[in-house]
Design a protein that fits this description.
This is TonB-dependent receptor. By secondary structure, the protein is mainly beta. It is 4% helix and 62% strand. The longest helix has 16 residues, at 2-17.
């Protein structure tokens, strides 16, 4: 097979480069100054096709690869200059062709009209969609993967210049703000005209240039003319057969756009593992809400009490039934006022079968060591229904005023039942359920008084209710001696224990900003801010006895009734100035912190002040080449979850108690980022390195007995800091119009400290000997990819990923080559197939597993026809399971998991396109 792929690549390469010549030149103005970012295209006069295009570098140089002995129309354009157009005939050797542009408006007598595949206008990169498609594309994701400098990861997230795209818009209107996956998976490829990458994006024009937006990127989709003021979309329905059950999918999509309003409706019901959103997507769905306190210098994050209900690692499990419905709208009652929002309903029924082997080596205080190995099989059934609603209002009556209001509501109903069969414990049966609710509101007002004075007011409120319920039925509860009032009913009677929790959060962030422009290139920013949070945490444990009665545990060690208030008032000062190619933005914030937790009949109050500096620096080496440095000193505070001192079940074999006397930790973060996007040869380079050092970190004090764990939260001594070093780099290039190559490397080194407790008796674990346990790990990842993009020939994408996870107790290696074949032929047929291979192994060869996946689809659609037939097969090699590896810093446990996936199935579907 490798030989076949190699021969095919060589054949495709030779066909592209045969009888080609190098055509180079310069574009200058009448004074001899080179013009950067000028557009050049060569149109074949015989075929009327554009054979090559280029964009000049900083010296005005360009290079084209053209056919020999062919006549072209050479067209050169640049904003503010007259268009240059002339007929040229190539020879058989390299040609050099200088172009001089005259200032003035563009000429009108242009006989040949062609679209530049890529053009640049200020901070916006504009891709012409049709220039990169070959006929096999069906959705936005398929087109984005072919664009120079753009990547789409496995989660459907879009990356440009190594940065994640934060927002996708269609015709300037938000498309499910806060998530890019719905856009990449659902917007039809045939509706796309232009794809605009908006760099340095800030939707508030009042703050443009005042804030540091270099990391902010948005995407705007321009539709083809036939898709505006008309309904468009498609309706897909399919049925099929699998190895174990019938398969089905129904997937309607409807879109409508005009300047005044827009409406998008998406539905999906299937049992083939096609998930528009996963449970993880739901919880991380931000709705476009930003971190308004990012310059505040302190961090107070509300932790989710989600019980660890398993979500899918991807779209593969033993069985998946998914129901999805979503609607997104935008309406302009006037030119100044925009109303928008969306609603999403997500329902999943999932069966997960997982086999896990865990190894831990304990180095005991007496110098000896012991190895704990557990083999466990989990059978899980999940059912979840989740709802998202967002409503937004934006009122911009003039360039001086901007008013926003947003509200995001999340409602969820989740249930999970698991049967666990362990080699070290008895059979265990657990049940989890929760109905969390949250509403997040955002109010912003920005006012530009004059060229020198800009004001901003931002307020965000979070209200959240969580009610996790956990039940475990097992032969013997390992923590029974610690739970005062727990009844041991003797041998042969199983323990049935349940815990209820109720956590309520009210959190308000308020910030007032004043910007004073000292000069056109410098300003002072004064910030007055406040974060206030009030939380309640209630929990209780009860036991169901063998006679059916309920035994409530009422001791203080098993009950929590905690109130916790956190308040942070701060004043910040930042000075931003530009000098030459450099931008500096140093500053600091002065904080007054107050905390108060009430539990066990007493109050524990803390109050202190702190000054927290930060620095931002940018070196604009060239127009599209930058080096950025960031430094911050941050105070990190825990929320109520780690303060509640009564015992809380993390799992059937894990018990946790908080510590009301915890103090904040301090983090120093340094990051350096390099970026270069060379439009001259479509070369994309970025590299990033960051170092984090955390002092007085809140860590676990853990007693590990076999596979059981009793832990509490403590502040660890500053002599034992946690450290993390992250480094990543990427090199990508598109060349010769037909090829795109990419290489990526990443390294993650971390060192964490925890406190291990070693039992020497059956007494209270707080009296047992302890020692600081330091665990280090290094993970490395390497990736290569190469793809072709022909209009009439088969196209290949070859990829290879290699990862090394070294946790200093074991080393795991994973190889993963992939091959994708796309071919549009006979003006009606599209064939797409993807093959992936995975090889997991460890250094000692005790783990060695291999598996692969093959999917394929054949589509038939005549030109201009509204109907499309599709035959698709999933898991055609009938792979039984997937393998994963993980490492826990607490105890240094290395885990190898294998989980079953859906068997082979084939679907026949019919799509009708509006």
């Amino acid at each position: 097979m490798k030989k076949i792929f190699f021969i095919l690549i060589m054949a495709l390469t030779s066909s592209a480069f045969s009888q080609n010549i190098r055509f180079e030149g310069t574009v200058k103005d009448t004074t001899g100054v080179g013009l950067e970012m000028a557009n050049i295209m060569a149109v074949n006069q015989q075929t009327k096709a554009m054979d090559a295009y280029a964009i000049t570098n900083e010296a005005g140089k360009f290079i084209l690869t053209l056919k020999s002995n062919t006549t072209y129309t050479l067209k050169v354009s640049y904003i503010g200059f007259q268009t240059f157009e002339k007929s040229v005939t190539t020879g058989t050797t390299t040609m050099n062709y200088p172009v001089v542009l005259k200032e003035g408006t563009q000429l009108n007598e242009v006989e040949i009209v062609q679209e530049m595949p890529v053009s640049v206008s200020g901070d916006t990169i504009i891709y012409n969609s049709d220039s990169f498609t070959n006929g096999t594309e069906r959705k936005l994701e398929d087109v984005l993967k072919k664009l120079p400098g753009v990547e789409v990861n496995k989660d459907g997230e879009i990356e440009v210049e190594g940065k994640k795209v934060q927002k996708v818009m269609v015709e300037g209107k938000d498309f499910f703000d806060g998530d890019t996956k719905l856009a990449t998976k659902n917007i039809p490829a045939d509706a796309l005209d232009k794809i605009q990458v908006l760099r340095n994006y800030n939707e508030v024009s009042n703050l443009k240039g005042l804030e540091n937006n270099e990391e902010s990127i948005a995407l705007n989709i321009k539709l083809k003319e036939g898709k505006k003021n008309f309904w468009f979309g498609d309706m897909t329905a399919g049925i099929g057969v699998g190895m174990d059950d019938a398969r089905y999918i129904v997937n309607p999509k409807l879109f409508y756009y005009n300047p005044k309003y827009s409406l998008n409706v998406i539905g999906n019901v299937n049992n083939i593992g096609e998930l528009p959103l996963t449970a993880q997507d739901y919880f991380k769905f931000t709705g476009g809400f930003k971190n308004m306190m990012r310059k505040g210098g302190s961090s107070f994050n509300v932790v989710s009490n989600d019980l660890g209900i398993m979500g899918l690692r991807n779209n593969q499990a033993a069985n998946i039934e998914s129901t999805f419905g979503a609607a997104n709208f935008s309406f302009n009652p006037s030119k100044a006022w925009t109303l928008s929002g969306f609603g999403i309903l997500l329902g999943n029924k999932t069966e997960i079968e997982n086999r896990t082997v865990s190894n831990r080596v304990d180095n005991l205080p007496d110098g000896t060591s012991q190895t704990i190995t557990e083999t466990r099989e989990d059978f899980t059934r999940q059912k979840s229904n989740q709802v998202l609603f967002k409503l937004s209002s934006s009122y911009v009556p003039s360039e001086k005023k901007h008013f926003d209001y947003d509200a995001l509501i999340k409602i969820s109903d989740q249930k999970e039942n698991t049967s666990v069969f362990s080699s070290l414990l008895s059979d265990i049966y657990t049940a989890k359920k929760q109905n969390p609710f949250s509403i997040n509101q955002n109010l912003n007002y920005y006012y530009t008084l004059s060229d020198k004075h800009v004001f901003g007011f931002e307020m965000q409120h979070l209200y959240q209710n969580e009610d996790p319920f956990y039940n475990a039925n097992l032969e013997t509860l390992p923590f029974a001696p610690l739970l005062t009032g727990y009844i041991n009913e003797g041998a042969g009677v199983r323990d049935d224990v349940t815990q209820k929790r109720f956590v309520q959060t009210n959190k308000v962030d308020t910030k007032f900003d004043y910007y004073y422009m000292l000069t056109p290139k410098s300003n002072i920013n004064l910030t007055l801010g406040n974060t206030y949070s009030y939380q309640n945490f209630d929990s209780s444990i009860f036991q169901i006895l063998n006679n059916g009665t309920q035994n409530n545990l009422t001791d203080a060690s098993t009950v929590n009734n905690v109130n916790y208030a956190f308040n942070d008032v701060f004043l910040g000062l930042h000075y931003k100035f530009m000098t030459g190619k450099f931008t500096f933005n140093p500053g600091f914030s002065v904080h007054q912190f107050n905390t108060n937790d009430q539990q066990l009949g007493t109050s524990n109050k803390q109050s202190f002040n702190r000054i927290l500096p930060d620095v931002y620096a940018l070196w604009q080496i060239k127009k599209s080449e930058t080096l950025t440095y960031n430094y911050s000193l941050t105070n990190n505070f825990t929320d109520i979850n780690k303060l509640a001192q009564g015992y809380v079940f993390s799992n059937y074999n894990s018990l946790f108690s908080g510590n009301r006397f915890l103090e904040n930790s301090t983090s120093q973060v340094h990051s350096l980022r390099y970026f270069k996007y060379n439009m001259f040869n479509f070369e994309n380079i970025f590299a990033n390195i960051s170092y984090t050092r955390q002092l007085e970190g809140i860590k676990n004090r853990a007693l590990l007995v076999g596979v059981n764990q009793i832990s509490s939260a403590v502040n660890i001594n500053s002599s034992f800091p946690d450290e993390t070093l992250l480094a990543a780099g990427n090199y990508g290039r598109s060349f010769a119009k037909y090829y795109k190559a990419n290489a990526r490397v990443g390294v993650n080194w971390s060192k964490f400290n925890n406190i291990r407790v070693f039992p020497d008796s059956d007494s209270d674990p707080n009296n047992n000997p302890t020692k600081i346990q330091t665990t280090e790990s290094v993970s490395q990842s390497y990736g290569l990819s190469f793809s072709t993009n022909y209009k009439t020939l088969p196209n290949l994408t070859l990829g290879y990923n290699f990862t090394v996870n070294d946790n200093f107790s074991d080393v795991i290696y994973v190889d993963s080559p992939t091959v994708t074949l796309e071919y549009f032929f006979l003006d009606a047929f599209s064939f797409v197939s993807e093959y992936s291979y995975y090889h997991n192994r460890n250094k000692s060869n005790t783990i060695d597993s291999e598996y692969d996946f093959l999917t394929a689809s054949l589509m038939y659609q005549k030109k201009d026809s509204k109907w499309e037939w599709k035959l698709s097969g999933t898991n055609l090699l009938d792979t039984k399971s997937l393998d994963t590896n993980s490492f826990s810093q607490l105890g240094g446990t290395s885990t190898f998991s294998s989980y079953r996936v859906q068997p082979r199935f084939v679907i026949v579907s019919l799509k009708y396109r509006l």
